[in-house]
Amino acid sequence: MSDSCNGSGISGNTSGRNLGGIREVEAMLVGVDLVSAARRNIEFLRIVADTRWLHEKARVVEAIRRYNELWMPLVSDLTVVGSTPPLVLPPLDVEWVWFCHTLNPVSYRQYCELKFSKLIGKPAIFNEGNEEYALMRCKEIWSRKYPSEPFENETDLDVRIPAVTDEELLAEVTKHRFLYSKFSEAYRSEIVYLIAARHRYKGFLHMVQRFSDECSRFVPASDILLMWLTHQSYPTLYAEDLKEMEGDMGKVVTVWESVKEKEVKETKMLWETAFDQPYEKAGGEIALKSEITASVKSPVHWEVSDTDVNTKYKSMLPRFLLEVCLFVKLNLATQQNVKWEFLRLRMLRGHKELKLDKSISNFHYDSWQKSWNLCCEFGTKGVVLEIFRQGGHCFKGSSLQGTVTFHWNELLRAPSQTLEREVSQQVRIVASITPPVQAPYLLKCVPDRVTDDSGAMISDLILRMNRYRPQEGRWLSKTVLDHARRECFVVRMRVGGGFWRRGGETPSPVKWEDRIIEIREGSWSYVAGSIGRAPEKVIATATPKEPPEQWKAAWNFSTGDELMIGWESSTSISSLCFYLGNQASPESSVKLLKGRKMHYQVKNIKSESKDEEIQNQNEEDEDGEEDEEEEGFVTIVRFTEENPTGKATALLNWKLLVAELLAEEDAALALLLCLSILISVSKMKKEDLGCLLTRRRLKEAKLGARDWGSVTLHPSSYSSSISSPHLQPWYWNAKAVLMGTDGADLITRQPALNYSPVEGSDDLYKRGILK
């Protein structure tokens, strides 16, 4: 065993050791390229999950018939024992049945030997061009062999479901319907992640073989499970690679089995015995349901997106997230009394208020303990671990005993994205991360100064620079900040016309149909202090219009969308309803659902199956009930051919003017929706609901306000001592995150705002917005 894996690694405050080289593991050969195969399988599972018709019982039953009666005899005729599998691939429905069948290696082998007297393998095709060739070749052979059988599954769903002839295989296919949900995180397809997973899978095989007689059942971590299922999906290679371990692999827990806490502990202990490493890692957690607890969902929605429509906005920079796991173990040689010592975690950059403390006396000498599980933005740079010694009863304060730092870039260069470091020769710490992947954008609007028709802020300074030419028009303005507090856009709402002259005319409110909203791309051009001009490029506008009879407010967007807003009572926001349509793109329908829906549902953050989520969602939609916590939230759900049941692409809070949106959702549309809804409802209630009339940049809340979303604590790491809303997704407690820890309105905690007469009176803005 190499030094990088045993207890003789380099130690010290700044050094670390790579947990990548295990000679016994590297000597274990696997006949399939698991990295390429896993990437292909993840994409295949994504297609299967998105292909809704594939899960209808009539289609599944027909697919099984086609698999048994057509595909397997065809591929058997082409298969020569001892040769590589033929370069052919079946249609999607048959391939899905084939894939599910191979995940039960014993049953699949018996099936093949009984019917064909040989084990039938799958070709290792990872190139898109080769895959297309294999599919076309299969179609030609299929047409010649079965001229009366269509290549595609053409089952008529209006016809009675055909009789089930293979109950066992139907059960196999049915139970794997939601398999993609186990591996849907975007980082799972990253090459560096899969290389590390392959390495750990080999280590897992080594452990199973070595300790088979000492353990009743082995529980695979999620990255190992992905590699195991991938290996199984190539049955001839799997059988050849593990022919000496066939009985041992029967002790490995399969994907949908519940496990016992004892089995999880035994697996972790044996891994530590074999490699002196923690068994779990970032992206390699125990994802199987135990007898006591269910697996806990990540609070981050790791969405896989093929396109980013917001790259057209140069002022928007993508946001990248990674998962971090930190394990701690006390050194056996430690003789000191650790009663007064504690370990502190903080970020290398950003979220300076973040300090997570744990007493060292809580850690163990004999095993690795998961101490923190976080989702962090890549811009945080890394984590810092510090050991402090408290002063005790007679001393005040704490003294720093040692520090180690883990940089994200350094961890990414480690083959397994895992490093170990030692602090003050007392504590060993292992940090692991997942590759950073693009995450949803976070945008929030903050009040700013009033501007004129040209976009310049209303001020005496601008008047002097313009040689006292009056500034025409009055627009309420908001600055749009991203997750890193960068200025992305300037949003302006027209309120007044005319101009102000000392001793002369004053601005007057404009008509409702002239109260347009515009979004300008970029940041302010400051000429002195906080006084400046808005960027020139207008990327989107919203214009109010006369609503149809059944609606109360209506807006036309320059994006081609049309928004309708209705309400039953002017005293209740809960009666709001929305319609959003686009005549230019009728094939892509969209709904605005009140509240936090689908994966934004707070009460469904804990683990539950996908079908349970859908059922709960449908029940909520039918009830139409909304509690106070949902007020202000709107979920954008898009319906396409790929997602006929809908996909949530953004969550808005129009009262707080905040948006979280996937890369495929347009930021300009999200901002227009927030502002137009807020203005309409404020006018309806004749009340300033979202600081619309505030005409100064306010001092933001101290804790977490400058880096909201930068660090999210995984629910498995929650404790009663950690209650900060800034370590949770912002929409769990939006007011506390965006308006202060107590949820109080920022305006109530700001000094009195003295507006200049040149901006216009309060009455101008009240009449221009609220009346």
UniProtKB/TrEMBL annotation:
Residues 480-660 form the GRPD C-terminal domain. Residues 607-630 are annotated as: Disordered. Pfam families: GRDP-like, GRDP_C. Residues 618-630 have a biased composition (Acidic residues). Signal peptide: none annotated. PANTHER family: ENOLASE (DUF1399). This is GRPD C-terminal domain-containing protein. The lineage of its organism: Eukaryota, Viridiplantae, Streptophyta, Embryophyta, Tracheophyta.
